[in-house]
Amino acid sequence: MSLRHPQGTEPQRPERDAAREKQAPVRIDVEELRKTFGSFPALNGVSLSVEPGELLALLGPSGSGKTTLLRSIAGLSAPEEGRIHFHGEDATNLSLRARRVGFVFQQYALFRHMTVFDNIAFGLRVRPRAERPRTKEIARRVNRLLEMVQLEGLGKRFPSQLSGGQRQRVALARALAIEPTVLLLDEPFGALDAKVRKELRRWLRQIHQETGLTTIFVTHDQEEALELADRVVIMRAGQIEQIGTPAEIYDEPATPFVCEFLGNVTRFDITLKDGEGEVLGELLPVAEGAAYRDGPAVAYVRSHEIEIAAGDRAAGRSAIVRAIRPFGASVSVDLDVEGHAEQIEAEIPRELFEVGEIRQGQKVRVRATAARIFKAE
Predict the structure, then answer these.
(1) DSSP readout, 127-153?
(2) How many CB atoms lie within 10 A of CB 371?
(3) Closest residue by Cα to residue 74 from 206, 190, 181, 178
């Protein structure tokens, strides 16, 4: 005997309360992942642990492997070696859907022929019938997400009627609609202008705090990674160079590559003696506990760690001001420094520029207030 439902009605499925169903954030463990494209090693033995509820940034130059790593975690790219675990369970061979991953692409990947509402609802409507929420539940969830991403009242519009920032919000809402256990974003703001990117950074951080999801995003924008992430993974040539909080990787870079990649730095070739080296007229020490104390080394000085003083009696080296670029709270100054082959850049407080202490063509003295020193390779 078969059971029939009255015409026009749906099978009765229990409504699900999203707040009541909210799962604990997922821990992700990546173990010795390897992936090649031809002879190019996109991932070369990458191991990484992402804490539950963490907002993690994958940062590095083009070709460093960050997007390949993200797609491997998502299940969109199969590694040739290594394992991926979600909350201790092997997920290496599971699909994106089986992993319950929400993925946001750089170019939105919205359906142009569908309204905003239908784009967000898509992932729910294509579920197998037994898992598909009822029509009213889908509408409730989509409307709640429209409110969360600040697009109330725009559900009937099409993607072509939205700005780039609004389309990216729709893409994120669609990823959240399936109630993922993990949220992954591949350069989510890369196609947007600087002002919109900055606005969406703050908004993404708020969304992350509200959802509590374990979230990983790929970016090539240093400022974006340092501003948003709990921790940052610096990648280079398919390997991880350093993992740490934004403060740790900026203030205590582990390698010369990390130091050069983050922020505006000038490199100086120096010679160490008893753990100190002369940089722009100042004797500066190597890091505490460094194994190298004598011999050839390289020192990296950030632009805001270069002090400029007018007059001939100040400490440091002699230099000539070649260009001044006032912008924001600080002013960038290009300098020809005695004994240094290349022009260097310093940042000075705007007040020094406004009172006329520093002028183009002026002879000044420059000194380094800090440096990160590495053994020369």
Answers:
(1) S-TTTPPPHHHHHHHHHHHHHHTT-TT
(2) 24
(3) 181
* Token output for 191: 């196609």
State CA 76 to chain mean position distance.
20
Residue 236 CB neighbour total at 10 angstroms: 18
The pair of structure tokens assigned to 267 is 């490199």
Q: How many Å is the maximal CA-CA distance in the chain? A: 102
pLDDT at 96 over 90: no
Structure tokens at 208: 């992350």
The kind and range of the H/E element at 271 are strand 265-272
Lowest mean pLDDT among 21-25, 167-171, 268-272, 288-292: 21-25
Cβ atoms < 10 Å from Cβ of 246:
18
User: Cα 192 vs. chain centroid, distance in angstroms?
Assistant: 15
pLDDT surpasses 60 at 182:
yes
Token pair 């946001």: residue = 104
260 three-state secondary structure: helix
Q: What is residue 77's DSSP assignment?
A: S
pLDDT at 22 over 90: no
Of 316, 286, 289, 312, the C-alpha closest to 300 is 286
Q: Residue 189: pLDDT above 70?
A: yes
Q: Return the structure tokens found at 35.
A: 């992936």
Look up residue 184 and give its amino acid.
L
β-strands 295-302, 306-310: how paired?
A: unpaired
Selection from 69, 91, 162, 68 nearest residue 120 by Cα? 162
For 299, the 3-state DSSP assignment is strand
Note the pLDDT tens digit of each residue in 131-153.
899 999 999 999 999 998 889 99
- Closest by CA position to 275, among listed 261, 263, 262, 290: 290
**Is the confidence at residue 8, as pLDDT, over 70?**
no
> 3-class SS at 76?
coil
Place of tokens 């890369």: 190
pTM to 2 decimal places: 0.86
- Per-residue pLDDT, 261: 93
The answer to whether the beta carbons of residues 103 and 52 sit under 8 Å apart is no
pLDDT at 359 over 70: yes
The encoded tokens of residue 153 equal 């009242």
Q: Answer yes or no: are the C-beta atoms of 290 and 275 closer than 8 Å.
A: yes
Q: Which residue has the higher pLDDT, 13 or 72?
A: 72
